């Protein structure tokens, strides 16, 4: 059963209030009767993390990599001004770390790194470098709090990227780590392409760097091949081998980046890499917003106490603007329909209690829900709610008749909110006046014909059903054999 969302007195984007047909109501009680099948469990979320002593679902940290992994997104170009704005926005949001592009990448990258370190942000600043002394030397001079050092350990990368064997990797890693530690910086060592690396190689190198006092080791699903279960197994195994923190980085090639991050935390990982909107190489990594949605459902208290969720939309808009993309319609939390409820069955229940079809309270993110009513899937409860908003009151039978008209028109063509409002207004007017207004102005002759036909069909259908029911009752036909009207003349 879904955890209930918090009570939201906020109106939806269309002005809908959450309550019985628009009347704001306290949802301390469910609408159904309490029973052993429906115990109304308000105080305990069934999505609370499973009781695993290794799990860090309630105490994870975010390493925000929009300014590193995100800069690797095909369309990204961040000048210093953009980087500062993004870094400040992420800091306001409350991320624990901000990871920057390697200062070895270019002279401007180095200058940008220095400038961001001087901003005095609350978040720790990291830079991401190759596992070699030249990069490490440049990085420690920039003023960063720490270095994220990486080197590929899979046979693909050992053969085709850097060409080094595991002995070389281990020796260089130790040299780099000791150097960085001697400079008083935080240090993380990560094996790129971990999930296509040999497990014995991985555990051996992680164990070696843990012994010399690395702050974190990193597991990276560089090609997005890992499944949640594989992630759980690897992180859990690693948890038994190292005592340092475990950072994880998940690409999204097969759509598992959020699930993998969650499983990593369940298995004992401590840090998750994210980027705003998930931007990064190819189709990117775990998105900050999507991870927040996932974690809010798992531990609302922890997430709300740490992260300023209401800033999410602004950060996403900022980054989307810089990288010149539109936020997808189905984006977690901020997609235009993330909290839109359309079908009549959903609309009715949502109006009564948002927990029926929402596990996330949009207000936690400064968003609002929207109850759609301008379609043929609408129902009379949604129309009644809309009429209430328009200040038009009718009997339930009248709302139902009005809804039938709206549905008939929606069968003719796609209708807009305005069309629906016009029909409600005209229908209401006609109830109280001798003069008969057309339900909708501006229909083409063709549409008018179709609308009339749809209405006739509707009336005929109703009449047929009434006659069928009467005939069935009179003949006392068993339910299974009752007459069904095939078509309406
Ligand atoms: C999975 C990831 O996202 S890892 C992070 C990726 N980030 C970046 O690549 C940062 C941006 N990169 C750059 O600006 C450039 O690639 C630089 C400055 C790092 C290197 O540029 P170049 O010296 O011209 O080398 P190039 O990019 O062609 O090839 C990569 C070099 O790094 C070496 N290399 C690759 N990975 C690593 C590693 N993890 N540790 C050490 N060396 C590495 C390769 O052997 C290769 O060196 P070589 O051609 O001298 O043998
Ligand atoms: O440093 C890491 O752990 C991750 C590097 C990276 O971007 C990747 O492997 O995809």
UniProtKB/TrEMBL annotation:
InterPro entries (UniProt xref): 2-IPM_HCS-like (IPR050073), AIPM/Hcit_synth_CS (IPR002034), Aldolase_TIM (IPR013785), DRE_TIM_HCS_fun_bact (IPR048253), Homocitrate_synth (IPR011872), LeuA/HCS_post-cat (IPR054691), PYR_CT (IPR000891)
CC cofactor: Mg(2+); Mn(2+)
Domain Pyruvate carboxyltransferase per the UniProt entry, residue ranges: 60-313
Keyword Transcription assigned: no
Transmembrane segments: none
Alphabetical keyword list: Amino-acid biosynthesis, Lysine biosynthesis, Magnesium, Manganese, Metal-binding, Transferase
EC number(s) recorded for this UniProt protein: 2.3.3.14
Entry protein name: homocitrate synthase
Organism: Zopfia rhizophila CBS 207.26
Lineage of the species this protein comes from: Eukaryota, Fungi, Dikarya, Ascomycota, Pezizomycotina
